[in-house]
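S., here's the first fold you wanted:
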Amino acid sequence: MVTFFNILIVVMLFNVIIFVHELGHFLAARWRGLRVDRFQIWFGKPIWKKEINGVQYGIGWLPAGGFVALPQMAPMESVEGKNREDEDPLLPVKPLDKIIVAIAGPLFSFGLAVVSALVVMGIGKPKDTVESTVLGYVAEDGAAAKVLQVGDEILAVNGEPVNGFLGSAAFDSVKESVMLSEGDKIEFLVKRNGEEKTLTTEFSIPGTKWYKRKGMREVGIWVENKIILAGVLIGGPAENAGLKTGDQIISANGELMRSRQRLMELIKNSDSKELLLVVKRGEGEERVPVKPLTPTNLEGAQPMIGVHFERGDEFTSTIYHPGPMEQVGDSVRMMWVTLSKIVSPTSDVGIQHLSGPVGIGGVMFDMLSIKDGWKRLLFFMVLFNVNLAILNMMPFPILDGGHIVLSIGEILAGRPIKARLLEAVQFVFFFLLMGLFLFITSKDIGDRLGGGGGGPEELEWPKEATS
């Protein structure tokens, strides 16, 4: 029931976003005296429609935006369907009126972003960031293994100062700086033993299935975190060794443990040989030998000790109240960085890393499924509407920016573009846009498939684990 309710919220918010954008075009068209034939949410043949005062209102079957049919703006019948038959010829519209109508949609989207930002300022939003940049883990097989060390404090990436390790709204944290970096190398400025060093490393891109998005750049690092047991599996090596929920693992085989990832790496590479753990329990410490084993009923399993870890202590989660200008500014900055990386030939960010309705809806659904998710969703409304406004202002046919460019061209030329030519151009770009939409949507779906399906509810261990 909760899942259905969350899906319903996501669909409603999508419709609100589309409705407000198209409402801008609709009201501006009425104000400037243009004829409005249809007001439709989503494309395709209407699954519901109703005519009121000469305007057909409807919902299409293809969940990809919406439109207001304005036959005096540009011939769009090949995309939007046939307009209303009328014996009287359509009166010409001034280019200025076309520009006003075209810009009204993005303006209303931007207005919705500002309204959402005011609400966010009032109720606050979670700030989930990893503020520390002190490394607690450097993967043995990672790209940075020969360069960076546990204990290094990262000060800058590629010459740009960093703001935390993860979660910066300005995309200037360590994680995002690595993912969005350009060129063949990544330069780190670190503080090691009180001395600043500039170190250069390569990077790797994890492989993905063909139907998923290409992986992003990584170097195999993470910040310090505590290793506290949240659970011990019945019958596993950890339980038989005497480990208990709440134990904090301090070291393994004499090596100080500064991250969960490093402990898991040691366990995986143990070749089922005994590890000597030093465990903090209450006010004291205990030495606990434990032998990792591979479950017999888990396909492709590696050695493990049968525990769950508490996670997230490295994150700082607070509620803060950013002003509307800060929220809108962060959204514009994120949009600009994303687009600039997509067009850069030295970046590994591509069109496939954008999200369509399925991906965006999935993110919104995920937000509703976690603590304070509705507050995160409100800020997402700011980000989404700012992005919608900016994307629609791009100077491509069928987009609002394209209408504005054509209208400016009409002013400069002193005459409108031929209707047949304009309709052909609009038709071609519509199908190019739909092709892009389907490609991105396929990646949205692909990223949510093939999650592995989980393992058995109970692990079965070799006999030596229970002897």
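And the second, which I think is the more interesting of the pair:
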Amino acid sequence: MNKRTPYDQNYYPPVPTGFTKWLRTNLLWQFFRFIIINLKMLRMVRKH
């Protein structure tokens, strides 16, 4: 039988690292990802 205690580590969500926070807030990285996603969509539209 597995006994779970309240406030155990399993109840808390994972905390993002500093690098992950930086990627989420950096406007240059977001713009780069925006361009990549748009290129992928254009490529998909051209195929069909």
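Why I say that: Residues 27-47 form the longest helix (21 residues). The CA atoms of residues 23 and 29 lie 6 Å apart.

Talk tomorrow,
H.
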